[in-house]
Specification:
The protein is mostly helical. The strands form three sheets. A two-stranded antiparallel ribbon has the order 1-2. Strands 3-4 form a two-stranded antiparallel sheet. It has a two-stranded antiparallel ribbon with strand order 5-6. Helix 2 packs parallel to helix 4. It has two domains: 230 residues, no CATH class; 297 residues. The protein contains 25 helices and six strands.
C-alpha cells in the first residue's frame, strides 16, 4: 500500500473514531478509544516505516488557496521518523487512556475527551506531514488548542488545571508567533510557502537573516519542547493534565517542538555557521541540567517526570546542536553520529517517559496519591506495576542494556569528538557541555533511584485505611508493551541506527550506519570493504557471533579511527545482555547450589537498630533522599523563607523552629522576575505622569516644545 494512502487511512480512522465517540454510550467509550487508537497507531507505524526504510516518500498537493499557495501533504524520511515514533507511543497511550475512561470517575467528560484526543492524533500527523508553511501552522494551531482543551477537560480550579491550561496556551501562542515570523523571513526570501522551494531559496539569505530565522524558530519551537528559558509551563501543565492524556502529551506532542527545530535549522536553513549550533548545544545542556536538578528534588511523581522531560529534551537538542556545529565545520562523520544520537534519544525518551507516566497514573489511581513521601512498599501490593516501572526507571537512568544507555552514551561520545574541531572556542564549549551532560546523567541516576525506591520499596507509609490493589489490565498492558520496547531498542542499536540513517544522511552529508556499525557479519554485502587485519582482530573478540542466525551488519557499535588509533570507541549492549544474564545465573547457582544447599532457611525479625518498633515515619523519605542534592545546589535553588515560627515552653525553652520555604524557579528568578520588575517600574513611572498635577503637564508640554525648536534650529 502506498504511503500517502496509509496516511489517508490513518486520518480516516481518526475521523471515524470521532464520529463513533459521539454515538457510543459512555460505558463503552474506553474500549472504543483504545481500539480506534491502536488501529490508527498501527497504520501510522506502517506508513512511517514504509517511507523510512523503503524510500516511499510522497508529496501530494491538496487545495490551492488564492494569494497563499497550495496546501501540500508531504512525507519525507525525516518526518517519517517522527511519524514512526508517534505511532509507537500512541498505541500504548491509547490503551491506557481507554482504561482510564472505563473508570466511573472519568466517564463524565469521556465523550469530549475521546473526540479531542483523536482529533489531536490527526493534528499531530498533519504537522509532521505538512509540505508547506500554511498547512503546518494550521495544524499547529489545532494541536495547541486541543492540548489546552484536554488539560482543562473536567477542570478543577482548586487544583490549578485551568491556570496551567491557560499558561500553556498563552506561552504556546507566543512561541507560535515567533515561529511564524521566522517562517515569514524564509518565505519572503524564497517567494513561496512550500518547504521545498524555501529550502532552495534559503541559500540566498544574508547572515543576519539566517540568525533571525534561527533565533525565532529555535526559541519559538523551544516553547513546545520545554527548553530553558521558556520551560516554565511544563511542570504545571503535565501535573494538571488528566491521567488519561499525559502519556500522549509527554510522549508525542513534546516531540513536535524538536521536529520544528530540526526541520527549520538543520534542513531548511543551510548550516554554514557554527554559531547557531553552539547556541543550540549550550541551551540544550542548560535545559538538561536545570531539568534534572529540579526533578531530583521533587516529590510529586508527575511533576518530577515533567521536569525530567525538560532534561531529556535538552539532551536531544544538545545532540542536534553538536551535529549542526560539525556540519558547519566540515566534519560529516561526527555530524552523523551527533544527529543519530539526538534522534535516538528522542525515540528512547518517548518510550520510557510514556511508560513512566502510565506507571505514575496507575500508582495515583490505586494508592490515591503521587507524593513519594507518603508512598512506600507498593511492590507488595502492585508487583506487576513495579516491574515495568523499574524497567522505565533503569532506562531513563541510562543503565545498560536498556535504550537510554545507548543514546546517552553516544551523546557523550559525540562531545569527545570536538577534538576534530579547529576552533578553540568550540572545543571549550563542547568540553563544558560534555561535563554538564555527564553531571546530568549522574543526577538522573539519583533521581530515579529515589523514584522507584521511595515509591515501591521499604515500609508502607500510606494510611492503613487506604486499600491498595494491583493496577487494572488497561494500565498493565501498555506498561508491559513499552517495557519490552525499551529493552528491544536497547539491545539492538545496530538495527536502530541503520533505520534512522536514511533520515539523517541528507542533513549530515555522511552515513551514521557506516560511521557506527561496521559490517562484521560476512553475509552483509559491505563486509568486504573492511580491512582484513581489522576483521581478523575483531573476529577473535567475537564480533561475528550471531551472523549465522541474524541479518544486518553486526551487533557491535564501533567508530573507527586512523591507523594509529583504529578504534575510537566501541560497545555492544547485545553482548552486555548475554553477559548480565550469565552473571545472574552464575550468582543464583553459587548461592542456591553451593552456599545454601545444606542450610535451612530461617526467618527472623529484621534488625532495626535496637528500636522496639520501627514506625513508617521513622524511615528514609523522598525528601531526605534528595536533601543532599538540595543542599549542594542551594546556590541554584535559593529558596525564600516565607514563615518562621518558634515554639517555646514558658517563654524560655525553645522546643521547635518551623520554617516554611517557597522555591522560585531559577528561570523565573533570572529571566522573568527582572523583566516583570522593569515593566512594573516603567508602568509606575507612566502612571505617576498620568496622575500628576496640571502644572507638571504644562511643564512637560513646554519642555517638549523647546526640544523641538532646538532640533529645528540645528
Amino acid at each position: 500500500m502506498e504511503t500517502q494512502t496509509l496516511i489517508l487511512v490513518f486520518l480516516s480512522v481518526c475521523g471515524t473514531g470521532i464520529v463513533l465517540s459521539l454515538l457510543t454510550p459512555a460505558s463503552r467509550l474506553g474500549g472504543l478509544l483504545a481500539w480506534v487508537g491502536c488501529v490508527a497507531s498501527v497504520v501510522l507505524v506502517w506508513a512511517g516505516a514504509s517511507a523510512l526504510l523503503t524510500g516511499k516518500t510522497f508529496s501530494q498537493p491538496l487545495w490551492a488557496l488564492p494569494g497563499l499557495g497550495t496546501l501540500t501533504l508531504s512525507l519525507d524520511r525525516l518526518s517519517a521518523v517522527f511519524v514512526c515514533v508517534t505511532g509507537l507511543v500512541l498505541f500504548p497511550a491509547s490503551i491506557f487512556a481507554g482504561g482510564q475512561l472505563n473508570r466511573e470517575a472519568e466517564r463524565r467528560n469521556g465523550r469530549a475527551f475521546s473526540v479531542m484526543l483523536l482529533g489531536l492524533y490527526g493534528a499531530i500527523v498533519l504537522i509532521l506531514a505538512a509540505g508547506d508553511v500554511l498547512l503546518f501552522l494550521l495544524a499547529w494551531e489545532v494541536m495547541s488548542i486541543l492540548c489546552y482543551l484536554l488539560i482543562v477537560c473536567g477542570r478543577d480550579r482548586e487544583n490549578g488545571q485551568a491556570d496551567a491550561g491557560y499558561l500553556l496556551l498563552a506561552i504556546g501562542e507566543a512561541g507560535t508567533l515567533a515561529a511564524v515570523l521566522g517562517f515569514l523571513v524564509l518565505a519572503v526570501g524564497a517567494g513561496s510557502l512550500d518547504f521545498g522551494i524555501i529550502k532552495s531559496g534559503a541559500t540566498g539569505l544574508s547572515a543576519g537573516a539566517r540568525w533571525a530565522v534561527f533565533l525565532l524558530s529555535f526559541f519559538g519551537f523551544g516553547v513546545k519542547a520545554g527548553l530553558v528559558p521558556v520551560n516554565f509551563w511544563v511542570p504545571g501543565a503535565y501535573t494538571a493534565a488528566p491521567r488519561a492524556f499525559v502519556p500522549a502529551l509527554a510522549g508525542a506532542t513534546l516531540n513536535l517542538g524538536l521536529y520544528g527545530i530540526l526541520r527549520v535549522n538543520a534542513d531548511l536553513l543551510p548550516m554554514t555557521q557554527a554559531g547557531p549550533g553552539l547556541v543550540v548545544l549550550v541551551i540544550g545542556t542548560l535545559s538538561a541540567l536545570v531539568g534534572i536538578l529540579y526533578a531530583t528534588t521533587e516529590n510529586d511523581l508527575k511533576t518530577m517526570l515533567a521536569h525530567s522531560s525538560i532534561e531529556n529534551a535538552g539532551i536531544t537538542v544538545a545532540g542536534f546542536g553538536a551535529g549542526m556545529v560539525f556540519v558547519a565545520a566540515g566534519h560529516p562523520a561526527p555530524a552523523a553520529i551527533a544527529f543519530v544520537a539526538g534522534l535516538y534519544h528522542l525515540l528512547n525518551h518517548s518510550l520510557y517517559k510514556t511508560l513512566l507516566f502510565c506507571g505514575a497514573g496507575a500508582v495515583e489511581t490505586q494508592a490515591g496519591t503521587r507524593d513519594m513521601d507518603q508512598l512506600g512498599g507498593l511492590i507488595k501490593w502492585m508487583p506487576l506495576t513495579a516491574l515495568p516501572f523499574l524497567v522505565g526507571t533503569m532506562a531513563i537512568a541510562a543503565l545498560p542494556p536498556f535504550n537510554g544507555f545507548v543514546s546517552e552514551w553516544l551523546t557523550l561520545q559525540t562531545m569527545l569528538r570536538s577534538a576534530e574541531l579547529s576552533s578553540t572556542t568550540a572545543k571549550v564549549v563542547f568540553a563544558l557541555c560534555g561535563a554538564g551532560l555527564a553531571l546530568t546523567a549522574a543526577l538522573a541516576m539519583t533521581c530515579f533511584v529515589k523514584a522507584f525506591a521511595m515509591s515501591f520499596l521499604g515500609m508502607r507509609r500510606l494510611d492503613e485505611n487506604q486499600r491498595v490493589t494491583e493496577a487494572k489490565p488497561g494500565a498493565l498492558a501498555p506498561m508491559a508493551i513499552l517495557a519490552v520496547l525499551c529493552l528491544a531498542f536497547g539491545v539492538l542499536p545496530t538495527y536502530v541506527i541503520p533505520a534512522l540513517d536514511p533520515a539523517l544522511r541528507p542533513l549530515a552529508g555522511a552515513s551514521a550506519a557506516e560511521a557506527l556499525v561496521p559490517p562484521f557479519f560476512a553475509s552483509n554485502p559491505a563486509h568486504g570493504t573492511l580491512p582484513t587485519a581489522f576483521v581478523g582482530e575483531f573476529r577473535d573478540l567475537g564480533a561475528q557471533v550471531g551472523q549465522s542466525a541474524l541479518p544486518g551488519r553486526g551487533l557491535v557499535v564501533l567508530h573507527r579511527g586512523g591507523s594509529e588509533n583504529p578504534v575510537v570507541f566501541a560497545m555492544s549492549t547485545s553482548y552486555m545482555l548475554v553477559v548480565l544474564v550469565l552473571l545472574l545465573l552464575l550468582t543464583y547457582a553459587v548461592i542456591r547450589l553451593w552456599l545454601t544447599r545444606r542450610r535451612q532457611l530461617e526467618r527472623r525479625p529484621r534488625w532495626d537498630g535496637g528500636v522496639r518498633r520501627l514506625l513508617p515515619e521513622m524511615t528514609y523519605t523522598a525528601t531526605g533522599f534528595s536533601n543532599p542534592v538540595r543542599v549542594i545546589f542551594d546556590a541554584i535553588f535559593r529558596p525564600t523563607t516565607v514563615g518562621d515560627t518558634r515554639e517555646t515552653v514558658a517563654q524560655h525553652f525553645r522546643t521547635a523552629i518551623r520554617r516554611e520555604k517557597r522555591r522560585v524557579h531559577l528561570v523565573d528568578k533570572l529571566v522573568f522576575q527582572p523583566v516583570k520588575s522593569a515593566t512594573l517600574w516603567f508602568a509606575g513611572g507612566l502612571a505617576a505622569m498620568h496622575h500628576g498635577r496640571i502644572n507638571a503637564y504644562a511643564a512637560y508640554a513646554l519642555l517638549a516644545l523647546l526640544v523641538v525648536l532646538v532640533i529645528a534650529l540645528l
